[in-house]
């Protein structure tokens, strides 16, 4: 690893409401890539990458081209519009994210619906994130990831309360704007 590159890890846990057919309903919501991408409060636009369409819609991993409008980035570092490539992989317990952003920023995240070992019979969403980037950027990138995780957790909880069986969502994961 280059001398100016560092890695940081974040972990968030969110207790899920005791409703629905867990864990399948919660996992189906996580497999809705449109929902997951739109959790980003700085989202400008996104599209499904063309390589996904060529390979067919049954892929477990799909790639999206995402543009964020990140006003908090100093103009001396980068333009406020940030183009990223995001790969989302559906797994049995949730989703994996691999994000490639400008200036060598790589972010990996795993969102999993798991049983809560401290509270038998209850479920939780566990979001584990690893960020690798320049030491100069780590504060900005880590701060954004740390602030966005609670939005995702709260959104899943709200959906589970409104639609406990996950019927309004599926693992469509092919929506794009």
Structure overview:
- By secondary structure, the chain is α+β, with helices and mostly antiparallel strands.
- It is built from 4 helices and 7 strands, in the order E-H-H-E-H-E-E-E-E-E-H.
- It has helices at 24-30, 33-38, 50-55, 138-162, and strands at 5-15, 43-48, 61-69, 81-91, 94-101, 105-115, 123-134.
- It starts with a strand and ends in a 15-residue tail after the last helix.
Task: List its salient traits.
alpha+beta, globular, disordered C terminus, 4 helices, 177 residues, 38% strand, 7 strands, 7-stranded antiparallel β-sheet
How are the SSEs ordered, and which strands pair?
Blueprint: E1 5-15, H1 24-30, H2 33-38, E2 43-48, H3 50-55, E3 61-69, E4 81-91, E5 94-101, E6 105-115, E7 123-134, H4 138-162
Antiparallel strand pairs: 1-7, 2-3, 3-4, 4-5, 5-6, 6-7
Q: What is the chain-wise order of helices and strands?
A: EHHEHEEEEEH
Catalogue the unreliable spans.
170-177
Profile the largest sheet.
Answer: 7 strands, antiparallel
Q: What strand order characterises the main sheet?
A: 1-7-6-5-4-3-2
Report the count of strand segments: 7
Helix content class: 10-25%
Number of continuous helical runs: 4
Oligomer: single chain
Taken from the alpha-carbon principal axes, the silhouette is globular
Rg over CA atoms: 17 Å
Provide mean pLDDT, rounded: 83
- Terminus-to-terminus distance: 37 Å
Give the helix/strand class.
alpha+beta
